[in-house]
Design a protein that fits this description.
Two copies of one chain form a homodimer.
Chain A: H1 6-10, H2 20-28, E1 32-35, H3 47-54, H4 70-82, E2 92-95, H5 97-109, E3 115-120, H6 125-132, E4 136-141, H7 153-159, E5 164-170, H8 182-195, E6 198-202, E7 228-233, E8 246-249, H9 253-265, H10 271-280, H11 285-307, E9 313-314, E10 322-326, H12 332-341, E11 348-351, E12 353-354, E13 368-372, H13 377-393
Parallel strand pairs in A: 1-11, 3-4, 3-5, 5-6, 6-7
Antiparallel strand pairs in A: 2-8, 7-8, 9-10, 10-13, 12-13
């Protein structure tokens, strides 16, 4: 019998996946499960995007251009301009989700065994894209006590080797909700210039920045044209996770030409979703204003309620819609499973994402969970109440 | 300035891409260009699929399940049953196009430096997916004089090393139009069993089989459950190339579990396209009957006309909608460019795909082109007439 490769074996499974059967069983037993575990917003997709698909007159559903249409990329430059990002259409390659944008980027700048440095905890699938490319993630720890701020630059420098090709950040961050300051981004700029590395910034949560803070894109920095690579996606911005449209943006022409070859090999991004994504650029500002007000409300309620739980530690997120909470338990994986398997209050329980999947250093984050505040306020309040009750009853 | 990786440099560019600027220039000079170079059918997408998207009532465009919905995969098993392929829903992972199906398959069964054997000429993007996975394509030549039949099994055996992980075929074939016989498939079965290799079959042209021939799927062979992997796609079957929905099918549970991890890392296939693809399964048989009649007509006209050109050699395709023609020129790349740059008749010219891009052995196929018969008969007749005139005038 032919065998799965070592790479196939090393490919990480979704950190939430193993809990899914327990959640399904809990529902079968008649329980309601509040899902704090997923990054799928409940916000309505902009009507203008939905309408563009409903009113389409496609007769032959043909390939789109591998790099995305000139028209869509041109419109994107106008959108970016509003966010102080000045690029041209030829600096953009449209991809099938932010996932593919990162996959192509890693494929273009790394060879077997190369390394990328990522502050941890980080978005779990960065591990998968690295494994797929036969490269190594080198984690650099950021801590809940520092609110997940950028680790000291000296710590980065200790990790840089001849195999280091890039530093990857997510800003604002999934799973931390941390927003890097201008000073932090400037420090990263100096670091990558000094060591001649790429700086990849996953900026898919650009709009989700709270409390009057400013988002600082790596594309807005002077003198970083050859080093900065931005990963983007329509998924969160327009609550269009199922579209699977993203892009890579860079002023580095060699990089864009190389990514284009990856894009050509897979021919095209999905045509219907491109229609929706192009139309979504017409979304009125009020849509975002309302969404931000809603998320700030949710975050405030969530953090306020969480802080009432004894011995629970939580960082205050400045962006995105996640936070990391440290629980008074030894093993959050076990606790999360126990909540689904053995706990309910009035036939209600809660599903959380154990944070261990967001760390690459073994044993890190064992007592942490990620909470996504993509539910309405009432559900969030009840979810935290359930979490509190569960912690009281749990003897892990 | 940070550098593109060796892999990024090795990534092959689309073999047609370099001709595109010449085609655009020809059009700017007022010429009509007949496109024999692309595999984008002009056939209308089934109405039932178009309607499913137009009539959707999605309000939040959310992620689909990473492996595809249970319902869609269940319906697919019924479709396959009609083609004598007996599988269960858990043997199927839905992917973003056949491209992703192959990318995930190679990621699951190969490690750095491993080899896959592919009869050449082959679909050019197999090179790209192999480069992306840091593995090596080992070509085995099939010849126009044999009509691109399966090379002798002894020739395969000469190429098998400890690094060989799979044999990959496209059946019916792009770019050859060749359809493997039951005997040939049986020979491959014996070979992969003897050497414990995977047998990957790209069967996306399953429906496009002519002259009363039968398609023989690798999934219909007894005793090959652990070795057979089928790559599929809705692109050609329903003229839905822009959907980007495909799948991997295999009875090998380790493989499917591994591919699922790759699928989870990229979260979801495009949701609108999944709607269209599921609905497309309701396409009435008459749609396919009419399409097949049309393609047989086109093929017959094309081959008949091509045979009138002196010193041109062409194989007679039994499936798909491509053929390879050998021209009385030294360098078909140069000839193809010349036709766009320096030739026209009555302000009309023709664009073909030089076949060198479909070969992995350097220097092979230099005097060959691939012709896609995805145009109507009149256009095909005129295209071949233009080709004939061009060959008479060309002094390459």
């Amino acid at each position: 019998m032919p065998k799965i490769s070592q790479k196939g074996q090393a490919m990480p499974a979704s950190p939430i996946r193993k809990l899914v059967p327990f959640a399904e069983a809990a529902k079968k037993r008649g329980n309601k499960v509040f899902h704090l575990n997923i990054g799928q917003p409940d916000i309505k997709t902009p009507q203008v995007a939905l309408d563009a698909v409903k009113n389409n007159d496609i007769q032959v559903l043909s390939y789109a251009r591998s790099e995305g249409s000139e028209e869509y990329r041109e419109k994107l430059t106008n959108y970016y301009k509003k966010h102080h990002i000045h690029v041209n259409s030829e600096d953009i390659i449209i991809t099938t989700g932010g996932s593919e944008a990162l996959l192509f980027t890693l494929g273009s700048i790394t060879d077997v065994g190369d390394e990328i440095i990522i502050p941890e905890p980080f978005y779990a699938n960065y591990n998968g894209f690295s494994t797929a490319n036969n490269i190594k993630v080198v984690p650099i720890i950021s801590t809940i006590d520092d609110g997940f701020a950028l680790p000291a630059i000296e710590e980065f420098e200790k990790l840089i080797t001849p195999k280091t090709k890039a530093i990857l950040i997510c800003n604002p961050g999934n799973p931390t909700g941390y927003l890097y300051s201008k000073e932090e981004i400037d420090k990263l700029k100096a670091l990558v210039l000094k060591h001649d590395l790429f700086l990849i910034a996953d900026e898919v949560y650009r709009e989700f920045v709270y409390d009057g803070n400013e988002h600082n894109s790596v594309m807005s920095l002077d003198g970083l044209d050859q080093h900065a690579i931005m990963i983007d996606s329509v998924s969160k911005r327009y609550s269009m996770c199922g579209a699977r449209i993203g892009c890579v943006v860079s002023k580095n022409k060699d990089l864009i030409q190389t990514i284009l070859k990856f894009a050509q090999a897979r021919l095209s991004s999905p045509t219907y979703a491109l229609l929706a994504s192009e139309a979504a650029l017409e979304t009125p500002q009020i849509y975002f204003d309302e969404v931000i007000v809603e998320y700030v409300d949710r975050r405030n309620v969530l953090i306020e309620e969480l802080k009432k739980i004894p011995d629970l530690k939580v960082s205050s997120p400045k962006g995105a819609f996640y936070c990391i909470a440290e629980l008074p338990v030894k093993d959050a994986d076990d606790f999360a499973q126990w909540m689904l398997e053995s706990f309910h209050d009035n036939n209600e329980t809660v599903m959380v994402a154990p944070a261990s999947g967001f760390y690459s250093t073994p044993g890190s984050g064992k007592n942490q969970i990620r909470i996504a505040y993509v539910l309405n306020k009432e559900s969030l309040i009840r979810s935290v109440e359930l979490l509190k009750l569960a912690l009281e009853q749990y003897k892990g």
